[in-house]
Amino acid sequence: PGAVAARRITVTGRVQGVGFRPFVYRLATSNCLTGWVLNRLGQVEIHVQGSSGSLHRFEHDLIALAPPLARPRVTSSAVADTAVLNTFTIRESSTAGAASIHVPPDLFTCNDCLRELNDPDDRRYRYPFINCTQCGPRYTLIRALPYDRPNTTMAGFTLCPQCQTEYGNPADRRFHAEPLACPDCGPALSFASHDGMTAVGNEASLVACIAALQGGDIVAIKGIGGYHLACDAGSDAAVTRLRERKPRPHKPLAVMFPAPPVAPLAAVSACVTLTREEQEMLLSPDRPIMLATRLTGATLSGQIAPGLNEIGVMLPYSPLHHLLLNDYGAPLVATSANISGEPVLTENREVDERLAHVADARLHHDRPIERPADDPVYRSIYNTPRPLRLGRGATPLEQSLPFSLPQPVISVGGHMKNTVALAWESRLVVSPHIGDMGNARSLAVFEQSIADLQSLYGVTAERVIHDAHPGYATTRWAEHSGLPRHAVLHHHAHAATACDPSAGDEPVLVFTWDGVGYGADGTLWGGEALLGRPGNWRRVASLRPFHLPGGERAGREPWRSAAAVCWETGLEWPDLPQDTELLKQAWERRMNTPQTSAAGRLFDAAAALTGLCRDASFEGQGPMLLEAASETAGHAIELPLKENSDLWLCDWEPLLPMLMDADRPVAARAADFHASLAQSLLHQSQRLRDSHGVTRIGLAGGVFQNRILTDQAAKLLEADGFGVYIPADIPVNDAGLSAGQVIEYGFGLQMQGGIIP
To answer: For residue 617, what are the contacts with CB-CB under 8 A and spacing of at least 6?
Structure first.
């Protein structure tokens, strides 16, 4: 054997909760190396010694052969002094030194655990909480770091001798699997129904739950990041009853499908068409809800997504879900158990009390959920699955910033689809979906998320970044936080997320089309084109503005937007609701009629004028129905572009007679509307290329969740020589605002010389 050498290696990244230390142990021993590995405040520190050839192989394989869910990054590797060591050991975690925390997300059930779950000879056969270092809950049960069992919600479950042996054996895949459990020592299920029937214990509770679902009941089922409301997805009666009770008259419901290991996509593929990318997304570690096109003749209730041709589908991601779906043998509705607009519920008692009018029965368990994490939602937009909602399995979402912040900051997002983000040095961490900020529970979870992120990562924010809208609950929180604060315009934050990182210092043109957001001139923007770079935007194009009668009420009453565009242009709308004369008089006097340029409100108007949606039961219903009704190819109507004080305004007026033409099919009118807006976006880009030389286009804002519009616009732009960038990790809707606020703030500081590039 050659001379013994030693190296000290530090590894950061996602190395917590993914079996990284046992992997290092096995890798070192297989290479006949001695030394030790320990976790030091989120980093893994390794001392390894042996022959130079073995050390070289070890360092290469440390990254190349890392556990599938790990994301390791070597930050230092240096020659070290050799020591007298006969073995390789895993040392106790250390809390000394500077923290470099990477909080692990909740993980889906791995294939090894699924095999054991379905093996009658295994001691964890049909155990609903089976897990190992490669799977199981993480983020939703961590109370503090380092990530060790006493710092999780599993602290109250004392390991039995067999589990303790596995936990302490470095060669076992359950070595230091912190949620480790078995039927003898771990969490258990319980069941209770509205008629007083109860069951205690895993098997009895599962049997009772399946019987309730087969009987048409609605059951609240506790999962990893919260509860689902579940019922038979093939039963019109059950789904209608769920809608009536929640109440949720029209908003789409997600469906979970059985996924046996031998053919995990067989059941879902019988109901929806899936591209290769969508199949890969469904099977990815995130196990998200994926929006997919419904197959004609699919055996699902028509009440799952009324008026839409897409369904949100997902696969089981916890052992409990696998057992339920396999036992039931058919798809189940699995929608968030909450009061509409609030975060998902997590507490057994709270579900018993607050959802007693909705759920006929409850399937509880006694493993506490430390913090809620709703299911993530993705949709294929321009050939790529993109997030509409961040959640369980995908969060905390970490991003690297192209600068280093001088002080830690917390950004608090917007009012709808809220998320928050913590940023320090060159790191950005985005929370799971919180919800709409118009209720007390959302505000409580919002405040918990802000405290959680700082506590988990060991970082204290010294400044708060918020939306410029003075009326947002998040703005008011920032005002009362006691921290120095910085306001970012809503559409500047959107634009910051849609700026192609490869553009360098080259100016980009970003279209920020959404509902409404507070603009620099005090009006409600939402159809903007912004030129420049993060931290330095100039508004160069927009949509012709109009005044919204009733202000915020227009968001849930699309007929108001339709009335506004007709009144603005002097057209009569024969289907205008009765008794609007007083409203029109108020509109003429500009009483409670804020001015807006929002593309989202133009979509609302189109949905109302075509008769698809005059009153909406959820935000975005009109545009969603308009997209679903649209034929694939439409005829674009030329929309005039007029220059007004260095601002190109696109005039939508020529669309109105077409939208109101009852002699044409709704599908054709909807298609023409999409085609016209896609072409107008191209024309604006061409004008601005002529005047400013811009060749890179970004798309952000909730309107670009619309696949027809986004696909058509991107194809037109690329065919004309433009580069097109659409965010793929951050949602284009308001869930991306918290990340955009940090990016906008950081680049703004950099331009002022107050930040390190």
So the answer is: 248, 249, 250, 251, 556
Torsion over CA of 400, 402, 404 and 408, rounded to 10 degrees? Answer: -50
What are the E-state strand segments in 91-208?
A: 189-193, 198-200
Residue 383 has pLDDT above 60, yes or no: yes
Query: Are the CB atoms for 419 and 738 separated by under 8 Å?
Result: yes
pLDDT, tens digit, 9 for 90 and up, residues 90-127:
888 766 545 567 788 998 999 999 999 999 999 999 99
Residue pair 138/367 in contact (Cβ under 8 Å)? The answer is no
Q: In terms of Cα–Cα distance, which of 237, 281, 475 is closest to 376?
A: 281
Task: With CA atoms as reference, report the closest residue to 230 among 238, 240, 220.
Answer: 220
| pTM of the predicted protein model | 0.93
Of 597, 465, 459, 613, the residue nearest 520 (C-alpha): 597
- Has residue 425 got a pLDDT over 70? yes
**Of 668, 650, 651, residue with least CA distance to 659:** 668
Label each residue of 274-294 as H, E or C: CCHHHHHHHCCCCCCEEEEEE
Q: Return d(Cα 27, Cα 351) in angstroms, integer.
A: 46
Q: Are 305 and 252 in contact (CB under 8 A)?
A: yes
Contact between residue 105 and residue 48 where contact means Cβ atoms under 8 Å apart: no
> In angstroms, rounded to a whole number, what is the distance separating the alpha carbons of residues 275 and 383?
9
Q: How far apart are CA 572 and CA 139, in angstroms?
A: 55
Q: Which residues contact 191 (CB under 8 A, 6 or more apart)?
A: 197, 198, 199, 200, 204, 205, 208, 209, 212, 361, 362, 363, 364
206 CB contacts (<8 Å, ≥6 apart)?
A: 126, 128, 189, 323, 324, 327
d(CA 272, CA 315): 13
Q: Which residues contact 241 (CB under 8 A, 6 or more apart)?
A: 216, 218, 231
* Token pair belonging to 610: 């075509």
> Each residue of 476-507: pLDDT tens digit?
999 999 999 999 999 999 999 999 888 888 99
